């Protein structure tokens, strides 16, 4: 069992509290591979806190249960924590957004798919970002008409870090 944290880093302009809209039902989109044979899973997998599956040959459950399509090794992932927001104070620094236990599977990459939300830093306005993948491609830009200023999230990066 390996406990890993998914960390993100981005530049935030006049916004704070970036997080998935519905943290418990959000699908953390991962690209994974089998550490035994090195085979990368051909499709993205979605890790959802409120989704549980039984682990074959065990009385336990996990948020994601799968087997390698090449070597048939069984693996599972369980989210430990995902109620974390990326704040304006975190801008341009890596911060852990989700922590999970990975058993027999290794994350390769993360895609910020799905719905995200953030708050204006200088007003009471809240922004819904319907497709998080825009962070990676062009960045996200909008306008806060209450504070009369541009808002943006750019230079999105991620990494996985081993935790104790």
Distance between the termini: 11 Å
Q: Level of helix content? A: under 10%
What is the CA-based Rg, rounded?
17 Å
Low-confidence stretches: none
| Average pLDDT over all residues | 95
Oligomer: single chain
Proportion of beta-strand residues: over 45%
- Number of DSSP-assigned strands: 14
Q: Structural class per helix/strand content?
A: mainly beta
Count of DSSP H/I helices: 1
How is the biggest beta sheet arranged?
6 strands, antiparallel
- The string of secondary-structure elements, in order, is EEEEEEEEEEEEHEE
Q: Order of strands side by side in the largest beta sheet?
A: 7-8-9-1-14-13
Coarse shape:
elongated
Output the keywords.
164 residues; mainly beta; 3-stranded antiparallel beta sheet; 1 helix; elongated
Describe the structure.
This protein has 164 residues and is mostly beta strands. Helix content is 2%, strand content 54%. The chain contains one helix and 14 strands; from the N terminus they run E-E-E-E-E-E-E-E-E-E-E-E-H-E-E. Strand 5 (53-54) and strand 6 form a beta hairpin. The longest helix is centred in the C-terminal third of the chain and has 4 residues, at 134-137. The mean pLDDT is 95.
